[in-house]
Amino acid sequence: MIEFLIKRLISLIISLLGITIISFSIIHLAPGGPLSPLTEFNPKITPEYRERLVKMYGLDKPLYIQYWNWLKGIIKLDFGRSFSLDRRPVWDKIKERLPVTLLINFLSLILILLIGVPLGIYSALKAGSLGDRLTTIFIFIGYAMPSFWFALILMMIFGVKLHWLPISGLHSIVGYEEMSFLQKVWDWTKHLICPLCVATFGGIAGISRYVRNSMYEVLHADFILFAKAKGLPENVIIYKHALRNALLPLITILGLSLPSLIGGSVIFETIFGIPGVGQLMWQAVMARDYPVIMGTLFLISLLTLLGNFLADIGYALADPRIRLGEKH
Amino acid sequence: MELFKELLKHKIGVVSLSLILFLIFIAVFAHIIAPYDPFEIRVNEILVPPCLKHPLGTDLLGRDVLSRMIYASRISLEVSIVAIGISTLIGVFLGSIAGYFGGLIDNIICRFIDIMLCFPTIFLILAVIAYLEPSILTIMIVIGLTSWMGVARLVRAEILSLKERDFILAAKVYGASTFRIIFKHLLPNALGPVLVSVSLGMGQAILIESALSFLGIGVQPPVPSWGNMLIEGKDTLEIAWWLSVFPGLAILLTVLAFTLLGETLQEIINPKKIKQN
After folding, report:
1. Rounded to an integer, what distance in angstroms lies between the CA atom of residue A7 and that of residue A254?
2. Neighbours of A153 (CB within 10 A)
3. CB spacing of B131 vs A149 below 8 angstroms
4. What is the ipTM of this complex?
5. In CATH, which superfamily holds the domain spanning A93-289+305-316?
6. For the segment B84-131, what is each residue's pLDDT rounded down to a tens digit?
7. pLDDT tens column, A205-227
8. CB contact under 8 A, A30 and B131
């Protein structure tokens, strides 16, 4: 177990360095270097001033020194200042938006599990039935559905036609301050229903397909046949023996699906006007606010990496073959 | 060819393949099929609902939605074909050298793949696009450069399992060059799985392209793309449902067709993985 942990930790650190190198390369791949967007279209910036900026940002130094300095800044969460009018530090901008994005992604992860796992199990147990077929159709539509279009359709049906749900923001603006706590919770819930549907749809499809296939395989494995031959009750076989083996790899799958889940934030936050990190990223790209773009890219990838790491640890804890130190 | 014959035995495979061929036909002959000029603005025909004259209605500038969607299919296919072409080339190249040479090279390439997979793709694409001018060429390249990891892994695994086989040993004894062994003997055997991932990848590339265009950083108006047509749809949600429904449906069906074709090919190539229905 300890050996496993150390191995994973080393690989985490290598991946982390890799992420910084790729992010850093993107900045410096830009034609004209990282300053060009700031200076190129600005007639007020004279060549002399540009020189000064180059010196100030250390761009005249060799690349590896620049990389080192950038890395030192990042460790202190110093991503520089935003190019936008307020010139605020990038970290401050990200910090205030991170909780919203994390909350939504956390909620969708739970919903994906709560809906996707039972759906997959049901589908595997009733393989070939009408319900299984419907689930399969649902899964493929989930794969192919453009999430932004799904968002538009939800807005059209529940927001515009039926007037059941608000279609923008995290909470009401008028009268929000006067609401009691419960009213506030209800207000948030109403605002979050559509974004959560969009965030979870693809994930539910992916997870239930995975669980279905995995469960189906386990149900036809020899040890289940043996359990049946032994005369164990059906329920014990399904929920004790089969399920355990089918769901174990799910931890890893969840870790691997984090990047696409978090990536979805850009889309639903932009469409539903939710002030999270995804929306920040989109706004920064539209305004070519490079420090914010790089800061967000780095932090989001870091979070994904940590999520993957936790999934690995979780898997190790759940799987006795690794927990007890047996070679896998 | 045998693969094709097998494919014709699968109902879903036939349906999805025909849909894709139909789409390619429309894209190639867009200029003949489209009933109107997709760029022509008609001020007296703004936001006409679907009717006989305009089967899918008109948009805010009076342009015919059906004609725009027909031209957009061209863009979507162009983007995804080039993007997947790039990603397949990179993936096959890196995957085969990693699988064939093993050792340190393999280690480095695998590590690189793992790191690339840590980035949420959309964030990575957005970051790269921010430094470049948004154009069709840009998104083709960026999608290609960020989606080769799956193919690379696949080809690596395939080559790893093939390279110890007798016929490769025979080729080595015979004195065939490394290049020849990889390209003449190993890769043709990995063709099937690569085809599967090309088909699945096409669907994903179309999804990414349309999402980027919808976010305003992909295909730029007035050039029509299914994604950027939906921008107008969002602004007119309350008055013109047809502007948001039809382009989205086109994306859904196209991606569905490519995904199902990929799945069917997978079943044919690797029957063990079939989950009996």
Report:
1. 21
2. 19
3. no
4. 0.88
5. MetI-like (1.10.3720.10)
6. 999 999 999 999 999 989 889 999 999 999 888 888 888 888 888 888
7. 989 998 998 888 888 888 888 88
8. yes
